[in-house]
């Protein structure tokens, strides 16, 4: 009996494999950037924290007393303080104690930087196929 | 013995409470928007998923075969498929089966919408204090 050996690279399946892989056309975020972004996205992966960040940045001077933040989100001060701590740890807010109240301020450039980063994940017309 | 009742609203502590609360100057995201945003942020709260979204959007036509995605992130195809499924469920990617391969495409407008939403969380000069 005669055995015919077919070169593996000519199998239809392998052609399909070879044909499937188009090169990337635009910039891809590196591992370190992806890790930093994921950390900030994780801090915002909760509706209350999205609202709290929104309320703080909407306030005059982009800062708010913790006493301003409990009523809008309908939660107790310890719970609100817990959420705010996560936003501080993610570098999105900074905290300052003034007398009996803690004040939270949007970190200049931090949220803007996140917005820019999300924009880099957005499909641009330049990388669209014809 | 005579008991003097002091009106609660005139206690120094309550004055401090009243004095602490500055009004919000800008727009605040509503509960429904906060919930939708948090869902998408949660999908991106992982470095691998940030990278996968970045790779897909950087590809020509903003789409990539799953076979293109395993090597850049250094993970097995089942693991990559799991991450991609989370991005699909968050409405950021859509999946199409073509023969033996699944292709993932950036949902038009979805990531751009997320970038716009993050921008609304960004402190703007208009709401800065003098």
Describe the structure.
- The structure is a homodimer of 130-residue chains.
- The first copy, chain A, is built from 6 helices and 3 strands.
- In chain A, α3 packs across α5 (77-89).
- Chain A starts with 11 loop residues before the first helix and ends in a 10-residue tail after the last helix.
- Chain A has a 3-stranded antiparallel β-sheet with strand order 1-3-2.
- By secondary structure, chain A is mostly helical.
- The radius of gyration of chain A is 25 Å and the shape is elongated.
- In chain A, a hairpin with a 2-residue loop joins β2 and β3 (101-106).
- The interface between A and B is large, with 61 and 60 residues.
- Chains A, B: Residues 29-126 form the HTH arsR-type domain.
- Chains A, B: This is Metalloregulator ArsR/SmtB family transcription factor.
- Chains A, B: It holds the Pfam family HTH_5.
Query: What's the β-strand tally of chain A?
Result: 3
Helix fraction bin of chain A: 40-55%
Question: Could you spell the SSE succession of chain A in H and E letters?
Answer: HHHEHHEEH
Mean pLDDT of chain A: 81
Order of adjacent strands in the largest pleated sheet of chain A? 1-3-2
- Which secondary-structure class do the elements of chain A indicate? mainly alpha
Which band does the percent of strand residues of chain A land in? 5-15%
Gyration radius of chain A (Cα, Å) is: 25 Å
In the predicted model, the low-confidence regions of chain A spanning at least 5 consecutive residues are 4-19
What about the largest sheet of chain A? 3 strands, antiparallel
Q: What would the principal axes of the Cα set say about the shape of chain A?
A: elongated
Quickly count the helices of chain A: 6
The N- to C-terminal Cα distance of chain A equals 52 Å
Chain oligomer state: homodimer
Largest interface: A-B, 61 and 60 residues
